[in-house]
Amino acid sequence: MSEAVQKVNVTVAGGYQPAVVNLRQGIPAEITFTRTSDAGCLDVVHSKDFDFETELPLDQPQTVTIDTAKAGEFGFSCGMDMFHGKVVIS
């Protein structure tokens, strides 16, 4: 039997919508980022907490896997660290 996967879509356009992603601890999770605007420095999303850096081509969804083993608040941001979002695992 396969475990359920939490899936969240984040739209990237002048920031992150939603900017806060809530996940349940211990359930595998994926966040799909879709950049819909070419304005600003949002062509990359990265997270030191989750050790990923992903390019976001315009209108092409990019999915990252999130380790939900540890509860807490974890950040992600654009390539220039000007726009921020967070993942809350509880």
UniProtKB/TrEMBL annotation:
<dbReference type="Pfam" id="PF13473">
    <property type="entry name" value="Cupredoxin_1"/>
</dbReference>
<protein>
    <submittedName>
        <fullName>Cupredoxin domain-containing protein</fullName>
    </submittedName>
</protein>
<dbReference type="InterPro" id="IPR008972">
    <property type="entry name" value="Cupredoxin"/>
</dbReference>
<dbReference type="InterPro" id="IPR028096">
    <property type="entry name" value="EfeO_Cupredoxin"/>
</dbReference>
<feature type="domain" description="EfeO-type cupredoxin-like">
    <location>
        <begin position="3"/>
        <end position="89"/>
    </location>
</feature>
